Amino acid sequence: MLTSQVNQIPTGGDNIIGWILQIAWLLFFVVFMFYSQRIQLYIMLREIEGSISKLKHFRDEGRKSAVQTIKDIGKPEGDPTARVDQFLEYFTVLPQSMDPAGIVWKVEHLLDVMDERFKDEAKIMAPAADIAQTKNIELTLEVALDLNYFYKVVRHFYILGKKTLSLYVIMQLQMVLPLIMRMAEAYSGALKAVTFGQPIGDGAGALVAAKLMQGYEKRKIPKDCVVATVPFEERTAYIIKAEGPGGNVGKPGDAIKQIIEENDGKIANIIMIDAGEKFEGEEPGEVAEGVGTIIGGPGVDQFKIEETTLKYKIPVNAIKIKEDIGDSISPMRKEISDAVTVAIDRIKRVVRERSKEGDTIIIAGIGNTIGIGQ
Amino acid sequence: MSNEVEKPRKRISYLFLAIILVTLASSAVALYQALNEYDRGYVGNGNSLLLIGGSGFALSAYMLFQTRRKTMRLEIKEQPVITTIQCKKCGFKNIRDFQRGDYIFKETDPCPKCNEKMSVASIYREVEEKH
Fold first, then answer.
1. Measured between alpha carbons, how far is B44 from B63 in angstroms, rounded to an integer?
2. What is the CATH number assigned to the segment(s) A201-365?
3. Which residue of chain A comes nearest to B104, CA vs CA?
4. pTM for the whole thing?
């Protein structure tokens, strides 16, 4: 039956070439019958190889940027390369969550330790850097660390897939690879921004707060935040943001808690502004409003704000400036910079509608304040 | 990691090259045979062989293109960032490329018009959307 089918394939007739082509067709069918999955596997592996070489390039660029920035700004005595390489292998062990009670404080403690450790590393590597520059170096190292991690994870599963020749290991990797590459490309785009101290998309909230507190006296509040008391739409507003212009997100949870407690809980409303991820199809810089504690990170600050606002029954309103993952860690786009004015107008409206004249309110601009003073 | 020597590598497997060469050779034979068939007046056979030869050529050209693409140099795109400096008193604006050390609200040189202090009003990048 197979022979009759093969005979129907258009070839060069009954001469020797025709026979060769018929045999080639036959071989083609047999090979595909038994080895199609294996061929598919090799095609996938080749695709992954391409992505791995791209990730390696990103990792190398991150490492090079970190070393160069430390050399340029930090003026270290020796070559910082070995120390940077050690830093790139840094890891964090998250607390055990079998008994989740009290895990927030464990995570907070761990994050504090990590923060101190990173700061110390940056200081040791770059002794001549000032506070803002040290923070930017710390951020550069963190980006380089993440790029190294992306590369190592993908390479791990690639080698594992190759060793086991398991279609399922390779297929899973190939399926998530576009998302990983998207993140890695965003992080590689962030490199220049953090090494040069340029404002990034994530700083949209901090920029709104910075604009509102311009020209007013500021004081430092824990941790790494600043607050200014500003007359705003016939109300008294405490404007909070992380202290800039170095790369810093501060601890807005502690800052908001402190202001609430300083006022014995007599806060009429809290308005939080942050950059938030947009859906595909939405324009970057769109402004949306809602309710709830809008803040990213591992959740410690969100938990603290929610605890305190619940205790004093303070409503929390949220304003989101939309952007995608790439924009949030790349130099701030013009659309996002322009959206700050729109966000301020929305805050004014929310304040007028959700509080009374003479009330005390809190306006907190959340996000990384790199490249944004106050 | 620090001891790694970075060299642009061009790794094309011999098996892959052999496949391309065999495909190319077979396609050439098929095309030659097609011409013979046309000469003998067997237009149908000639068309079949022409189709096979043409497909073979296209396939090997595509595979060759893929190997070239793999060795292309990777670069991270530079993103031009703009700094806008503005005088608070007269509104005079100076727009220039970002310089290391710039940050929003940083005080800069006095205004050339009214001699008041100027400060960085915004730092941003403009993105050209791909359509």
1. 29
2. 3.40.50.1470
3. A372
4. 0.81
